[in-house]
Task: inverse folding
């Protein structure tokens, strides 16, 4: 695998208000709340960097300036000292195989500054598309929520290559249903095709690979780049693509927490050290 092949960018969703986390989020955006001594969203950033993905777009709204001030446009991310044969070739440049750290580049989509508030997930993705897909051939990207804790998740080039070859519009990772979502969101057939209705459903982890064309007609009618700041949820267009059998998926059974309440934040901070 050549390093030039690893161009896939990642959008980390960080624009939400975090109402259920108040008062913790009154002065701190939820993705910056501390988990084991570092911001919650940094766990996702380090996971991406371990997989060789070190070019991020972060969308912001509530207290967004605190996120961009904290991370700026470049950050050294700790990925752990690993044998060279385990690291993607991208990380081997400049003798980084000897280092615990890798440099990451960060771009920002400031929804709060530009439109006065968050654009919801689909609206935010369309707004960020020019940064995520800057060339014709660069039409696939990662998306994940900055307030989800999944420290063991493996972001891999193999997953990207497999998705590109599939021709699907999306590949999503599902998780066993947590107590706060026992009914689940989507079904997963044995052939890896995601369906809207099935006797057993799983919860959408927020982690996904998307193709740029999912965010255009007939699935999405928001103009490219979302210049008017149209708010739009992801679920309706994703369900439409699922109905057209354009979404694949798999079940992830590792550590995963939607950090939506102070209690869940306390729980992951009390977990055995990773």
Result:
């Amino acid at each position: 695998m050549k390093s030039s092949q690893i161009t896939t960018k990642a959008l980390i969703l960080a624009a939400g208000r975090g109402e259920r986390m108040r008062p913790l989020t009154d002065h701190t955006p939820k993705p910056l709340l501390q988990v084991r001594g570092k911001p919650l969203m940094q766990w996702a950033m380090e996971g991406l960097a371990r997989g060789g993905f070190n070019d991020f777009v972060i969308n912001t709204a509530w207290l967004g300036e605190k996120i961009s001030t904290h991370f700026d446009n470049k950050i050294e991310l700790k990925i752990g000292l690993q044998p060279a044969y385990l690291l993607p070739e991208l990380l081997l440049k400049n003798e980084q195989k000897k280092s615990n750290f890798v440099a990451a580049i960060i771009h920002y989509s400031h929804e709060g500054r530009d439109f006065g508030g968050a654009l919801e997930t689909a609206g935010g993705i369309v707004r960020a598309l020019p940064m995520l897909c800057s060339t014709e051939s660069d039409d696939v990207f990662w998306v994940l929520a900055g307030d989800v804790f999944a420290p063991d998740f493996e972001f891999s080039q193999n997953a990207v290559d497999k998705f590109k070859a599939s021709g699907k519009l999306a590949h999503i990772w599902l998780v066993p249903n947590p107590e706060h979502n026992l009914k689940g969101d989507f079904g997963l057939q044995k052939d890896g095709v995601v369906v809207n209705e099935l006797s057993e459903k799983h919860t959408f982890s927020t982690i996904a690979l998307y193709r740029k064309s999912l965010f255009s007609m007939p699935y999405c009618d928001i103009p490219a780049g979302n210049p008017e700041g149209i708010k739009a949820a992801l679920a309706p267009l994703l369900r439409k693509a699922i109905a057209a059998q354009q979404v694949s998926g798999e079940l992830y059974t590792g550590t995963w927490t939607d950090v939506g309440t102070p209690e869940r934040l306390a729980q992951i901070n009390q977990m055995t050290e990773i």
